[in-house]
Design goal:
The chain is of the alpha+beta class and about 300 residues long. It has helices spanning about 1-30, 35-40, 45-55, 145-155, 175-180, 225-230, 250-255, 290-295; strands at about 30-35, 60, 65, 70-75, 80, 85, 95-100, 130, 135-145, 160-170, 195-205, 235-240, 260-270, 270-275, 285. It binds uracil.
Length: about 300
C-alpha cells in the first residue's frame, strides 16, 4: 500500500511538474529562444549534438550560417534550417492514442515500453500523457505538451466526464446503478462522485475469457482462473461514466459491487472520443476542431 501511494505521488509530482515547467516555457516561446533549445525542442538532437552541428556549419538562420548555439531565434519570424531542411517551431502538439495493453502511461520506464515510445513522428520532445491508464487498460489517451490543457482536464474541480467500457466477472446487480448514481462508498471509505452505470449485456463466460492476473499487480483482484471457476460463469459488459480519476477507480468501483474488472477500455474524455479507426497502438494528431473543443473546457 505504501509502495502504491508512493508511486502515485511520484506520478503526480512528475506530471504536475512538467505542466508547470511547460507553462513557464509556453510564456517565453512567444518571444525568443536559443538556437540549440529551438532545435532540441523540435527533436533534432540533444543540445550537445546540436552544438556540434552548429560548429560544423550545418545550421542557417535567415539564410546565413549560424555557429553560435546561443543565438536567439525569434518565433515565428526567423527561418532556421538544419542540413538544408527548414525546421519550423511547433508550439503545441496533440495526439490521440489508442493505448494498447502492456504499455505504461509515463514518459520513461525501465521495464516497459511507454506511450511516448509509440509516437514515431513527434515534432516536440516534451510530450506527456494527460492522466494515466493502467498497464492493462486500453483506449483513449491524449498525449500533448500543452500543460494548461492537461491541467484543465485533470483538475478535480472541472469534473470532466470519462467514459469506460468494462467486462466484469459475474452479473452486475441492478442495485449497482443507483448506488453509483448516488455516489458509491468504497470499502476503504473513499466516497466516489456520482457516476453513471449502464449494463450493456450479460453473457456466458467462455474458456477464452480466462482471468489473467493483472500485469502490474493491481486490481482486478482475481488471482487466477481457478479462483473464479465455478463461482461465476457470467460476464457483464458495462459502460461507466465517472467524473474523477482516482487510482484504479473503475476497478475499485466494480470490485466494490462484487464484479471485478476483467478488461477495461476508455472511450472518451470530455468532448474527445476515441477514433474507432485507431487499432490498439495506433494514434493520430487531433483535428483543429478537437483541439478547439478541448480549449472550451
Ligand atoms: N480506472 C481504472 O481502474 N483503471 C484505469 O486504467 C482507468 C480508470
Amino acid at each position: 500500500m505504501a509502495k502504491k501511494s508512493l508511486h502515485k505521488r511520484l506520478y503526480f509530482f512528475t506530471v504536475f511538474d512538467m505542466i508547470e515547467d511547460n507553462q513557464e516555457r509556453s510564456e517565453c516561446l512567444e518571444k525568443e529562444l536559443r538556437l540549440d533549445k529551438f532545435l532540441a525542442d523540435m527533436a533534432q538532437g540533444s543540445r550537445s549534438q546540436i552544438r556540434a552541428m552548429a560548429k560544423n556549419g550545418l545550421i542557417t538562420v535567415n539564410g546565413v550560417t549560424e555557429k553560435r548555439p546561443e543565438r536567439k531565434i525569434r518565433i515565428p519570424d526567423d527561418m532556421v534550417t538544419l542540413a538544408g531542411k527548414p525546421v519550423s517551431y511547433t508550439v503545441m502538439e496533440y495526439f490521440m492514442l489508442n493505448k494498447p495493453k502492456g504499455v505504461v502511461s509515463a514518459t520513461e520506464d525501465k521495464r516497459h515500453k511507454t506511450v511516448i515510445d509509440l509516437i514515431q513522428t513527434p515534432s516536440r520532445r516534451d510530450l506527456f500523457p494527460v492522466g494515466r491508464l493502467d498497464l492493462d487498460t486500453e483506449g483513449l489517451l491524449l498525449l500533448t505538451n500543452d500543460g494548461a490543457l492537461a491541467h484543465r482536464l485533470l483538475s478535480p474541480k472541472k469534473q470532466v466526464d470519462k467514459v469506460y467500457m468494462a467486462d466484469c466477472l459475474g452479473e452486475v446487480p441492478g442495485t449497482a446503478i443507483q448506488m453509483f448514481a448516488k455516489g458509491l462508498i468504497l470499502p476503504d471509505g473513499l466516497c466516489c462522485l456520482p457516476a453513471s452505470l449502464v449494463i450493456c449485456g450479460v453473457r456466458q463466460r467462455n474458456v477464452e475469457d480466462g482471468i489473467r492476473p493483472p500485469a502490474d499487480n493491481t486490481p482486478p483482484f482475481v488471482k487466477d482462473t481457478q479462483d473464479a471457476c465455478g463461482t461465476d460463469d457470467k460476464i457483464t459488459t458495462v459502460r461507466l461514466t465517472i467524473r474523477e480519476g482516482k487510482f484504479h477507480q473503475v476497478k475499485r468501483m466494480m470490485e466494490a459491487v462484487g464484479c471485478p474488472v476483467l478488461s477495461l477500455k476508455r472511450l472518451s474524455v470530455g468532448p474527445l472520443t476515441l477514433d474507432p479507426k485507431l487499432l490498439p497502438g495506433e494514434y493520430r494528431r487531433l483535428t483543429k476542431k478537437e483541439v478547439e473543443l478541448l480549449n472550451r473546457l
